[in-house]
């Protein structure tokens, strides 16, 4: 099974032919800029399309800390995204209130473990909206 850096490499080399469809769900690649280093970091993330946007979850498996990619995009919300062979710039923002409440079931429908992760942590797991740049 693809995971981590190997997942990113295979996805990029094959334009998502390997790595987009993963574990009965779909994965995009998110590239953020390191908030301290300024270096690009690419992370494979489960996603769902929602209108013209893409939705991802900063679950980190229910860890008490937010994942590094999420901390990076909070510091700089201008990100790069790859969905299969399509690459584009996007603006990331954290869903809040009713918007988050409405998007959570969309994401748990494709990855039910998100509900389990909420039981492992006291933090609210962020739901992130990636809005392609116009």
From TrEMBL:
Belongs to the F420H(2)-dependent quinone reductase family. Pfam families: F420H2_quin_red (PF04075). This is Nitroreductase family deazaflavin-dependent oxidoreductase. It catalyses: oxidized coenzyme F420-(gamma-L-Glu)(n) + a quinol + H(+) = reduced coenzyme F420-(gamma-L-Glu)(n) + a quinone. It comes from the Bacteria. InterPro entries: F420H2_quin_Rdtase (IPR004378), Split_barrel_FMN-bd (IPR012349).
């Amino acid at each position: 099974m693809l995971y981590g850096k190997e997942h990113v490499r295979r996805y990029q080399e094959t334009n998502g032919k390997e790595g987009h469809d993963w574990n009965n769900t779909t994965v995009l690649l998110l590239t953020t800029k390191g908030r301290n280093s300024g270096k690009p970091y690419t992370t494979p993330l489960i996603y769902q399309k929602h209108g013209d946007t893409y939705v991802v979850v900063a679950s980190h498996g229910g860890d008490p800390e937010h994942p590094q990619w999420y901390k990076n995009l909070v510091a700089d919300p201008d990100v790069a995204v790859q969905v299969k062979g399509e690459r584009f710039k996007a603006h990331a923002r954290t869903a809040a209130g009713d918007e988050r409440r409405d998007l959570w079931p969309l994401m748990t429908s494709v990855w039910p473990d998100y509900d389990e992760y909420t039981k492992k942590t006291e933090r609210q797991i962020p739901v992130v909206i990636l809005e392609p740049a116009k």
